[in-house]
Amino acid sequence: MKILMIASEVDGLVKTGGLADVAYALPKALMAMGHDVKIIMPAYQRLNEHWQDWPSQPLNVQLSYFEQHDVNVRLGAHRGLPLAMVEHSPSFGRDGIYDDGHHAYVDNPYRFSLLCKTALEWCKQSQWQPDVVHTHDWPSAMACFYLAEHYKADPFFAKTRSVLSIHNGAYQMKCPSHWGERIGINNRFFNATDFEDCGDLNILKGAMGFADGVTTVSPGYAKELMTMLGGHGLHEKYASLALPVQGILNGCDYDQWNPEVDTWLPAQFATPNDGGKQTNKLALQDEVGLPQSTDKPVLGIICRLVDQKGIHLFIPVAKELMKYHDCQVVILGSGDPLLAGQLDQLQANYSDRFRFINGYDVGLSHRIEAGCDAFIMPSIFEPCGLNQIYSLRYGTLPLVRCVGGLKDTVVPVTDLADNADVATGFMFEDISVDALLWETVRMLALYKERPDVWRQLQDNAMAQRFDWESSGKQYEDCYQRLLQDPKTSHNLL
Ligand code: ADP
Predict the structure, then answer these.
(1) What is the DSSP string of 251-283?
(2) I want to staple 74 with a disulfide (CB 3.0 to 4.6 A). Which of 54, 100, 243, 488 is the partner?
(3) What's the pLDDT tens digit per position in 287-329?
(4) How far apart are CA 443 and CA 58, in angstroms?
(5) Which residues, 6 or more positions from 192, have their beta carbon under 8 angstroms from its beta carbon?
(6) Confidence label for 490 from pLDDT (cuts 50, 70 and 90)
(7) Whose CA is nearest to atom 9 of ligand 1?
(8) Which residues surround ligand 1 with Cβ inside 6 Å?
(9) What's the maximum distance between 2 C-alpha atoms anywhere in the chain?
(10) Do the beta carbons of residue 348 and residue 322 sit within 8 Å?
């Protein structure tokens, strides 16, 4: 199959979250399966050194009656994957990806719609006829609408199917309705079934109805999207789709995340007790300035500092842990300055046990995964989550909330540890400080009192595999099914 991936971020180039991991690892897996895959993304200014010498293909792209633009598509490669980048300096020649560090760019609907329309025009001009156009979250979702509406009579795309993957349904791009006419959405689609949402234009909501297939990144999240609690306000839309949302668990890129070969680590290790993991623990404590001790459990967190990740639940828990329990905490994250301020305060109060590193640091994220004993993910919602998957591979037991992909990837140990032969971590259910505290204390007790069970759980965890081969195969099946079915007739919806 010829598969076009349209993405706003790609791991190794720009990344703000798990979408980037998928936009790199899935094409890699599909190419290994023999498919002809191309990725197209914006030529962000911060990536200048990558694309400025690449050959360019000029295009004139019409977004709507009012908007026609000259753009360049730069043609190159990223770690062996064919990559095209859309150069349009009024849109992408700025420092940020989605925002200026404080506020989202107001013209985001337009910038990313231009990416989508250019991607399709570029296929036409190159005479490269995609079987599948795979889009990711709201920034590329408009390609599904354009295919179904702007190109519905175009024989070039007659056989092309569109897929929209939801990596995080909370980000929908709601914007004032006037953007509609600039990005080529006819007013007749500004209705409650399509793009209208409480008087605004909602790009994810509208575009999703025009995708031939909608997927998301775990079976658990696919179910949650259909519920009032988990659908981010769009549960009725998800429920009304012609085909149900398919949940395909993200794979893990084990070329990057494997403690046996990980070059970010001071020592590689294959089992939790071959000495390597302890070396990493001591080195991590040294790196972040905590007292070195192999006995004290070290708990880690790596995430964007946003409400979704449940850090506001962990802050009061951390205060209790610091007062009454002998453990260390290392947190790496950036985002909400209010949460960062509270974490700074904890560090000031408990400087011998609590470390907060405010920033984005890939190397340190690997060393935290390797050097900690446990990894905490108290997410309010979590479409898939990658860090718990990495944690498993590094023998760092995940403690997660029972939600979305976390529920699908961690097997919680029971109160009596009578499932120690299969369990891989710890889980709590309620969105409450008490529930998280209870489970954390239970985990610390197990660490101290039952090293044999802890070791068994580490072995189980390290043996888990969530590889891209199997996820890639499921995407391949999804594409094939869509190609066999007649095209979804959106106008009848
Ligand atoms: P989300 O996509 O919601 O941010 P995921 O768990 O799916 O959450 O993916 C997050 C990815 O981003 C992981 O690869 C994680 O290691 C990485 N990451 C998040 N914050 C940081 C940070 N501050 N420094 C380094 N890597 C980070």
Answers:
(1) PB-TTTS-TTT-TTSSS--SSTTSSHHHHHHHH
(2) 54
(3) 999 999 999 999 999 999 999 999 999 999 999 999 999 999 9
(4) 58
(5) none
(6) low
(7) 18
(8) 17-18, 21, 168, 302-304, 332-334, 360-362, 365, 384-387
(9) 70
(10) no
User: What is the distance in A from the centroid of ligand 1 to the CA of 18?
Assistant: 6
Judge whether 142 and 113 are in contact, CB under 8 Å. Answer: yes
Interatomic CA distance for residues 142 and 311, integer angstroms: 33
Output DSSP code: residue 440: H
pTM exceeding the 0.90 threshold for the entire prediction? yes
User: What is the C-alpha to C-alpha distance for residues 284 and 290, in angstroms, rounded to an integer?
Assistant: 8
User: Token digits for 227?
Assistant: 């519920």
Start-end of H helices in 127-266: 137-148, 179-182, 203-208, 219-225, 235-240
29 burial type by CB count under 10 A (0-12 exposed, 13-18 middle, 19+ buried): buried
| 187 Cα: distance to centroid of ligand 1 (angstroms) | 38
Closest-CA residue, ligand 1 atom 19, reads: 303
Q: What distance in angstroms lies between residue 354's CA and the mean position of ligand 1's atoms?
A: 20
Q: Taking a C-beta distance cutoff of 8 angstroms, is the pair 196, 190 a contact?
A: yes
Q: What angle do CA 461, 19, 259 make, to 5 degrees?
A: 30
Phi, psi for 57 (deg, rounded to 5): -120, 110
Distance CA 344, CA 348 (A): 6
Task: Give 17 Cα–ligand 1 centroid separation in angstroms.
Answer: 5
Measured in Å, residue 21 CA sits from the centre of ligand 1 at 9
Residue from 168, 304, 391 to probe ligand 1 pocket by mutation (most atoms less than 8 Å from CB) = 304
Index of the ligand 1 atom closest to the CA of residue 304: 20
Q: Are 259 and 268 in contact (CB under 8 A)?
A: yes
Atom of ligand 1 nearest to the CA of 359: 23
Compute CA distances 86 → 14, 31, 116, 355, 399, whole Å.
14, 22, 10, 40, 41
Taking the centre of ligand 1 as the mean of its atom positions, its distance from the CA of residue 328, in whole angstroms, is 21
Ligand 1 atom with the smallest distance to the CA of 15 is: 12
* Closest by CA position to 372, among listed 339, 401, 394: 394
Work out which ligand 1 atom sits closest to the CA atom of 386. 6
> Could you tell me whether strands 81-87 and 397-401 are parallel, antiparallel, or unpaired per DSSP bridges?
unpaired
Alpha carbon of 153 to those of 147, 157, 182, 250, 303: distances in Å?
10, 8, 21, 35, 45
Distances (CA, A) of 78 to 10, 93, 273: 9, 20, 37
C-alpha 332 – ligand 1 centre gap (Å): 10
